[in-house]
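pinning this so it doesn't scroll away 📌
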Amino acid sequence: MEKVFCVYIATNKNNTVLYTGMTSNLVGRIFQHKNKEAKGFTEKYNVDKLVFYENFSTAMDAIAAEKRIKGWTRQKKIDLNELPRSKLTGYPPK
């Protein structure tokens, strides 16, 4: 089975913070966030609700997408949720 890498955005129950991350096990990672097993920012701000994800076939592509998203404004990240999942790699134009 081929390994899949995910870039994801998660928030808290009040949608006041956005966290961008990358993982090769999205279900496990969200479980860690929900159970406060992921220490740091997500634990401090109770980030445990998945709002966006996209799969990538290589870790390099996922890391590049994660870095790109982390540089975006909050509004661009919010707008991302309105796009089809397959559009992340080309949005926004460079």
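📌 and the second one:
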Amino acid sequence: MKMTFRLLFMFFWAIILGILTCSINLEALLSTHTMQFIFNSHPDYSDFFAFDLTQIHPKWVLVKFGHFAGFGVMDILFLNVFRKHKYALLMTFLFAAATEILQLYFNRDGRLYRLYDVIIDSLGAILSYYMAQIVLHLKSKVAWKESKVNITQ
């Protein structure tokens, strides 16, 4: 039952990330709750590698933080399912790359740094790995101290 819940939650989060990354206008989606998708059957694959600093907008940092945090959460969800962090990191990286490649097929507003986004997504996953390691280390320290207290009593 727990594994089913973990899988469902992971797929639910993947769908949310997919909608957020492929919607034609993220701001309209978030403010007016309108979803619109436009499919482009002949994308320009060179756009994946394009990086245009003139495309940076006032909410750029917020959007990139969303990438960072969203894929950090995805990594934790993959970790809950796969139980090995190297698999979780690999799956998060592949999912990040897949969503950015998929965006080539959708006419998303101002999307000119997809490879850069994969890097940001992956950095979010790596940070979640280190945060998980810190939490596990702190848990083991607390458990060790509790066992030491029980022994002395």
